[in-house]
Amino acid sequence: MQRFSSRSCAGQDQRVVDDGSPAVPAELADRFASAALAHDVEFLAVKAFAAGTRRLNHALRPLDLRARSYALLATACEPHPLTQRELATLLELDPSQIVALVDELVARGLVTRDTDERDRRRRLVRASAEGRRVHAEAAALAAAAEEASLAPLSPDEREALRALLRTLVFGPQPSTTTTAERA
C-alpha cells in the first residue's frame, strides 16, 4: 500500500512516498490534472517510469542492487542466456553500461560470462547459483515495489496495462485466446 505524508520543503508541502522520495508537490498535482502534459503519453510514461524506478531502487537497497542490475540479473536467470550485445539491446543501455553492470555482477559472484559452444566468439551472461538465490530475494522485493506502484489500479486494469506495455515494447503478439473462448 502506498502511503503519503506531508512535509515542508522550502515552504512547499510535498506528498512523500513511503520510501522517502518526494512525489509531485500537492499543489502541482492538483493543477497538473487539467494540464496539456496530463494527456501526453510520453510524458506520463516517463513520470511513471521514474517513480517506479525510484521505488524499485529503494526496495532493492538491502541486496545492494538497483533497477538496472536487477534487470540484468533477472535476464541472466532465464533459460536462454543472452550476449552482452543482446542485453544492451533488450535493456536499452549502451554496451559500455552493460559491460560495467556485468563486471559488477561477476565480481559479486552473481553472474558468469561463458563462451557460447555454438560460436566461440560470443560470450553469454548466465546467473550463478548465488545469482539465482539473490534474484529470488530481489524478485520478491520487486513484486512488492510493483504492488505499491500499481496500488491505485484494479486487477483488471493492471493486466490491461501490462498487455498494453508488452505490445508497445515487443509489438503485437499472437493471441493465446482461442476462437471458442472469444465466442
Automatic annotation (TrEMBL):
Segment forming the signal sequence: none
GO biological process: response to stress
PROSITE patterns tied to this protein: HTH_MARR_2 (PS50995)
Organism: Quadrisphaera setariae
Domain HTH marR-type positions: 25-170
PANTHER family given in the database record: HTH-TYPE TRANSCRIPTIONAL REPRESSOR YETL, TRANSCRIPTIONAL REGULATOR, MARR FAMILY
Protein name: MarR family transcriptional regulator
InterPro entries according to UniProt: HTH_MarR-typ, MarR/SlyA-like, WH-like_DNA-bd_sf, WH_DNA-bd_sf
Gene Ontology terms for molecular function: DNA-binding transcription factor activity
Pfam family, one: MarR_2
